[in-house]
Write a structure and sequence with these properties.
By secondary structure, the chain is mainly alpha-helical. It has helices at about 5-25, 30-50, 50-65, 70-90. Bound molecules: flavin-adenine dinucleotide (FAD). Flavin-adenine dinucleotide (FAD) binds near residues 20, 53, 57, 83 and 92.
Length: about 120
Amino acid sequence: KLGNETAKAELGRATWKYFHTVMARFPETPTEDQKEALRSYIYLFARLYPCGECAEHFMQHLSKYPPQVSSRNAASGWACFIHNEVNAMLDKPEFDCANLGDFYDCGCGGDEEGAAA
Ligand code: FAD
């Protein structure tokens, strides 16, 4: 089956940007409800990802490395780790998760609890 690699890669870049930005905005000390929201979101995100082959791979990664939702740090670190699993599968360089810092900035300034509230 012939795909369109350019479109697939572009979708991937846009999605990762969004995915990591969601994690960067997740509360530092989430409530149980917020943790459950993120966990459900991640599983539904995987299930509904438009590239079927990617979704299938990603769901396998998820079953091996379940989402970490206890804090912003845990969620961001987990997302970086699982993106690196995809990088490894595709022979791409590993991203240094220690350099995550403010790499993913939503541009939404000081509305600190804007996400998952
Ligand atoms: P990308 O991997 O898209 O990364 C974009 C940018 O994010 C990088 O330039 C870097 O600045 C930063 N980055 C890189 N690694 C990390 C990290 N670990 N943590 C935080 N930031 C990082 N493609 C396939 O061909 N087959 C698949 O099975 C497949 N599965 C995918 C599953 C998901 C859930 C997603 C979102 C994408 C998938 N893709 C898949 C697409 C693939 O991961 C890439 O997005 C695409 O190949 C473009 O790669 P890229 O080199 O531009 O960088």
